[in-house]
Amino acid sequence: MNAFDKLRSKGHRITNQRENILQKIKHHPQTVEQIHEELEDKVDLASVYRAVKLFVKNGVVREVNLNDGKKRYELIDEKNHHHHFVCNNCRSIKDVSSRLEDRMIEDFRMSTNLKIEDHSIQLFGLCQNCIDL
Fold first, then answer.
1. SS3 38
2. How far is it, in rounded angstroms, from Cα 109 to Cα 129?
3. pLDDT greater than 90 at residue 82
4. Which of 26, 55, 119, 132 is least buried, going by the fewest C-beta atoms within 10 A?
5. 16-24 vs 45-57: helix axis angle to the nearest 10?
6. Record-annotated residues binding Zn(2+) (predicted)?
7. Residue 81 annotated as part of some ligand binding site
8. 90 a known binding residue?
9. Residues 33 and 59 in one domain
10. Which domain holds residue 109?
11. Quick check: 73 and 16 in contact, CB under 8 A?
12. Model confidence over 26-60: pLDDT tens digits?
């Protein structure tokens, strides 16, 4: 079920503003302020905050913590679970995924009596552009 269908199934309308906001966070994690800037004042900042809060509450967007004190949000893509690499120099963000994480999570689950409901892995270092400088 895509984000629009999920929202509709919970009784929420898909307005042009909500659609535009979802399109902006579809590709990479962004702060509310970044989303607002990219919308070029088509949606006021308070509306962006309200929409993002609604999306998080309804499980179509997740908060991403990249340890810099800023809340970022990204569209949940159940078919493409991934994590993030953050360049310590230029602060660029790249999506990363690995089968190793699946084995690690499964190993942890099997060796404990804990129920894992979610997880997040963030990698920090230098991107290729910054290495080449």
1. helix
2. 37
3. no
4. 132
5. 80
6. 87, 90, 127, 130
7. yes
8. yes
9. yes
10. 83-131
11. no
12. 878 899 999 999 998 788 999 999 999 999 999 99
Q: Cβ neighbours of residue 92 under 8 Å, at least 6 residues apart?
A: 86, 127, 129
Question: Strand pairing partners for 95?
Answer: 84
53, 75, 97 - which closes a domain: 75
Residues 9 and 62 in one domain: yes
Contact 32, 71 (CB under 8 A): yes
Calpha distance 29→90 (Å, rounded): 15
| Phi, psi torsion values for 41, nearest 5 degrees | 65, 20
Burial of 50 (0-12, 13-18, 19+ CB in 10 A): middle
Number of domains present in the structure of the chain: 2
127 annotated among ligand-binding-site residues: yes
Name the pTM for this structure: 0.75
Query: Which two structure tokens, joined as six digits, stand for 49?
Result: 């905050």
Closest C-alpha among 45, 62, 51 to residue 119: 62
CATH number for the domain harbouring residue 24 = 1.10.10.10
Beta carbons within 8 Å of 8's beta carbon, 6+ residues apart: 14
Token match 């790249």: residue? Answer: 94
